[in-house]
Each structure stands twice: as structure tokens, then as C-alpha cells.
């Protein structure tokens, strides 16, 4: 039978099933965590501001990665015969969107830190004064990484791997392309993110022209809090998220190292709603308000009187005694 027209039932291999189960549990926990976070955004609309543009974009990529996982999970457990053309298209989508969305987060965090730096240095809301430039950058960040993947496929610079019962991979064909991809997708945005973060912290630490001790103390307090918040978020991000993108050009994702990198990246997605609170005080306040409301609800439940139901026999016995 012609492979181009034949259909085939897609399923996980036994080895992949052992890997996919812990990832499924992590993704279910991540979904609950993100659902709670989204409910908080609806209940506390004070965090809906233009300055949260990049934070929301980052969270959306997390949700898209979770949606991608669940759709592919259903696709491989669904006992339907899939034509070859459809299988190839889905396989390309599986490989491209994993790399694309992870690369997207890298540039979103870079844009977030550039805007934060400009706000700190110039002292005005860049999301209002430079709205058009930010929207152009927003579109380019989503558009250019996707186009780069399409160009690499069109020119044959990547090779699609579709092992039976495993994950689809899109690997660069030469060492030069692998290094170039790694430089533009990881090292440039990550290094620039850290540079702008350090520049922001350096500007906050400066005391030029500040004579009042109270203002200086308040600025130093803000500086220490910002250092702690940023350190928490970027430590989690670099440790859990980096391996997945660093290993992409060199290792197959179906191997042991690739599976570990995937697990770490999904753990990062699970922790993101909490770690995002380190970037903005308003998000932390929403978590605190939600916790306070839950504690108040539990106290009301514990302090509410329990009704005592007397049986008919007990009532009759009491009346006889009286």
C-alpha cells in the first residue's frame, strides 16, 4: 500500500508511556494552578493594566504549551486511522510549536526587562508614551521566531524525526546551524535580559542627588526587594526552563536527557503563576487576598454550629420523664 495515502493508528510506545505519565500529572497540576491564577485576575481587576502586557504574554505561552500537550495526548490515545499527510502535518506542528513557544518566552522576558529598565531610568510609563513602538515589538516577537522556523524547514536546514510511538523532533542538520540557532534563540535574549536587569538594579542603587535619608532608605529597601524578587524568578526560570531549549539542537527529545528536560520545563510552567508574583507586587497581593478569603471561609465553616438532631424515641422518653 502506498505510504502517501495509507492511514495508520498513532499510539505511544511502551517506553514513552512511562515518560508521559509523570508529565501528564505535572500538566494537570499546572492547569489547576493556572486556573486559580486566571480566576484571581477576574476577581481582582486591579492588575489589569497596560504595564502587564508582557507578563500576560508570558502566561499565554504557558497556556498554549499546556494546550499543545493535551491535544497531542488525546491525538495519540484516540483510536482513529490517520492519513499520512495529516500525520506529517501534525508531526511538524508538534515539533515546531514546542520550540517556537519556548523561544517566544525568552524574547518576552527580554522585552519585559527592557521596558522595566526604561521606566526606572526615565521615570514615566513607557507603555503609554511608547505604545506604538511596543505594539510593533509585540507583533515582531510573535512573528519573527515563527518565520525563522518556516525558513529553516523550507531550505532544508532541519530534519523531521518521527520515531514510532515517540515525540516528533525537528533537528538542525549541521553544527553551524545548531550553534546559530542556539545563539539567536537562547544566548542573545538571555544575556540581554540579564544585562538590562543588572542595569536596572545599578540605577536603583545609585544615590546621586539624593540627600534626604528617608528617601535613600526607601530606595535601598525597594532595591533589596527587587533584587530578591528578580533573583527568585530568574533562578527558577534558568534552572527549569533552559535545559529544554539548550538541548533542542543537539539531542533527540525521546532520549532520557530530552525527557528530563521536558519534565523540568513543565515543572516551570506549574510554578510560573507563583513565580510571576516576584515580578510585580500586585500579583503577590492577589495571592495574599485569595489566601485570606480561603482562611476566613474555613474559619466560618469551623465556627458554624452543628445542628443536633434528636430522634423520636429520645423526645418521647424526655416527655415521659417530665
TrEMBL record:
Domain G-protein coupled receptors family 1 profile, chain residue ranges per copy: 32-276
Subcellular location field: Membrane
Keyword terms, alphabetized: Membrane, Transmembrane, Transmembrane helix
SUPFAM superfamilies attached to this UniProt entry: Family A G protein-coupled receptor-like
Originating organism: Adineta ricciae (Rotifer)
Source organism, top-level taxon: Eukaryota
Protein name as it appears in the record: G-protein coupled receptors family 1 profile domain-containing protein
This protein's record includes keyword Transmembrane helix: yes
Record bears the keyword Repeat: no
Chief place of localization: membrane
Membrane-spanning residues: 20-41, 53-75, 132-155, 175-201, 222-240
InterPro entries: GPCR_Rhodpsn_7TM
GO cellular component, one term: membrane
Amino acid at each position: 500500500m502506498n505510504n502517501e495515502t495509507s492511514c495508520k493508528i498513532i499510539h505511544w510506545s511502551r517506553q514513552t508511556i512511562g515518560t508521559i505519565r509523570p508529565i501528564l500529572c505535572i500538566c494537570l497540576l499546572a492547569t489547576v494552578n493556572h486556573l486559580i491564577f486566571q480566576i484571581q485576575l477576574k476577581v481582582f481587576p486591579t492588575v489589569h493594566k497596560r504595564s502587564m502586557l508582557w507578563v500576560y504574554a508570558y502566561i499565554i505561552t504557558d497556556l498554549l504549551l499546556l494546550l499543545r500537550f493535551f491535544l497531542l495526548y488525546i491525538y495519540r490515545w484516540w483510536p482513529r486511522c490517520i492519513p499520512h499527510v495529516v500525520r506529517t502535518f501534525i508531526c511538524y506542528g508538534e515539533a515546531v510549536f514546542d520550540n517556537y513557544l519556548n523561544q517566544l518566552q525568552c524574547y518576552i522576558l527580554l522585552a519585559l526587562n527592557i521596558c522595566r529598565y526604561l521606566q526606572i531610568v526615565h521615570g514615566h510609563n513607557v507603555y503609554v508614551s511608547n505604545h506604538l513602538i511596543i505594539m510593533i515589538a509585540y507583533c515582531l516577537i510573535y512573528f519573527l521566531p515563527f518565520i525563522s522556523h518556516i525558513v529553516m524547514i523550507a531550505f532544508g536546514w532541519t530534519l523531521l524525526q518521527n520515531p514510532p510511538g515517540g515525540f516528533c523532533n525537528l533537528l538542525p542538520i549541521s553544527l553551524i546551524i545548531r550553534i546559530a540557532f542556539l545563539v539567536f534563540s537562547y544566548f542573545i535574549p538571555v544575556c540581554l535580559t540579564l544585562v538590562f536587569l543588572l542595569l536596572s538594579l545599578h540605577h536603583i542603587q545609585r544615590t546621586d542627588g539624593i540627600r534626604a535619608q528617608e528617601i535613600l532608605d526607601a530606595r535601598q529597601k525597594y532595591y533589596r526587594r527587587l533584587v530578591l524578587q528578580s533573583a527568585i524568578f530568574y533562578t527558577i526560570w534558568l534552572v527549569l526552563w533552559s535545559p529544554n531549549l539548550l538541548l533542542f539542537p543537539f539531542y533527540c527529545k525521546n532520549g532520557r536527557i530530552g525527557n528530563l528536560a521536558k519534565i523540568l520545563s513543565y515543572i516551570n510552567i506549574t510554578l510560573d503563576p507563583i513565580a510571576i508574583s516576584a515580578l510585580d507586587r500586585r500579583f503577590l497581593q492577589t495571592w495574599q487576598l485569595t489566601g485570606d478569603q480561603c482562611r476566613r471561609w474555613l474559619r466560618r465553616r469551623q465556627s458554624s454550629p452543628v445542628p443536633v438532631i434528636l430522634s423520636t424515641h429520645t423526645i418521647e422518653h424526655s416527655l415521659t420523664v417530665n
